[in-house]
Amino acid sequence: MTTKKKQAIKLAIVGAGKMGGAVLTGALKAGILNAGEIGIYHPNSSRREVLCKAFGVAALDDEAIHQAESILIAVKPQFFDDVAPLIAHRSASFISLMAGVSASTIAKRVGSLRVVRAMPNLGVRLGLSATALAALPQATQADLELSEKLFQAIGTVYHVPEHLFDAFTGLAASGPAFAAIVAEAFADGGVRVGFNRATAQDLARQVLLATAKLLEHQGPAELKDEVSSAGGTSIAGVKALEKHGVRYGLMEAIEAATLRAKELSQDDY
């Protein structure tokens, strides 16, 4: 009688919250890895079992985590000090989702220079994430290819120098909050000119959805000019926006978010 050979764990996920769970779901759905090649590690064994049962993948203990080929760190930065000694593994590659923790800091804590740093944004919930990727020079081509595949399965990947990760946070990670404020203001404006709240919110959402699609085919300035006919309604509205500094305010919001990201990334986790 022959025994079935156990599959090697190609990707271990440390923590599986919203971001880690989204990467796991995307990897399985896209067929990048099968369930037998993925495991979840969590210091709390009870929580580990719950997560593994939910996703249908293996539960990894303190010994098994060190057999994994690649390790995805999907814990909050403040918990990294606790898990780093448990997952340190010189021969593994590491992919980090932690905001504010540099690739070099991760390398020092886990004992491997094969580190790729990734930063998805909220669009990960819909498979529409904008994800920044940066890697230490020692990361192999295979490390980069796996990282690209994992995050392409949940959106679009941007190769960004690590020194621009704070700027990426200000624009792509914080951007959904600013866009939501624009949508809310659109709806409030609709209510002010006579629509009921539900209709105004629906119209605001539809305008932004359609605009996003149009921007896939033309630049923002071109689109604005196309809509703004001479002496028409749109150019009157554009004048009002300029009068109240809306464009400047949005630029300032991205700069402020970037500066705050720099402050937070200086914390010694």
Task: Outline the structure in words.
This protein has 2 domains: 155 residues, NAD(P)-binding Rossmann-like Domain (Rossmann fold), CATH 3.40.50; 91 residues, ProC C-terminal domain-like fold, CATH 1.10.3730.10. An 8-stranded mixed β-sheet has the order 3-2-1-4-5-6-7-8, with helices on both faces. The chain is an alpha/beta fold. α6 crosses α11 and α7 packs across α8. The mean pLDDT is 92. It contains 11 helices and 8 strands.
What's a concise summary of this model?
The chain is an alpha/beta fold. It has helices at residues 18-30, 45-55, 80-87, 103-110, 141-152, 165-173, 175-192, 197-214, 220-227, 233-243, 246-265; strands at residues 11-14, 38-41, 58-60, 70-73, 93-96, 115-119, 129-135, 155-159.
Helical stretch count?
Answer: 11
Unreliable segments (pLDDT under 50, ≥5 consecutive)? none
What's the structural domain tally?
Answer: 2
> Could you name the CATH class of the largest domain?
Alpha Beta
User: If strands are numbered along the chain, what order do they take across the biggest sheet?
Assistant: 3-2-1-4-5-6-7-8
Q: Please provide the ordered H/E string of secondary-structure elements.
A: EHEHEEHEHEEHEHHHHHH
Overall CATH architecture of the largest domain:
3-Layer(aba) Sandwich
Q: Name the CATH superfamily classification of the largest domain.
A: NAD(P)-binding Rossmann-like Domain
**Structural classification:** alpha/beta
Mean pLDDT: 92
Which range best describes the helical content: under 10%, 10-25%, 25-40%, 40-55%, 55-70% or over 70%? 40-55%
Q: How far is it from the N-terminal to the C-terminal residue, by CA?
A: 52 Å
Main sheet characteristics: 8 strands, mixed
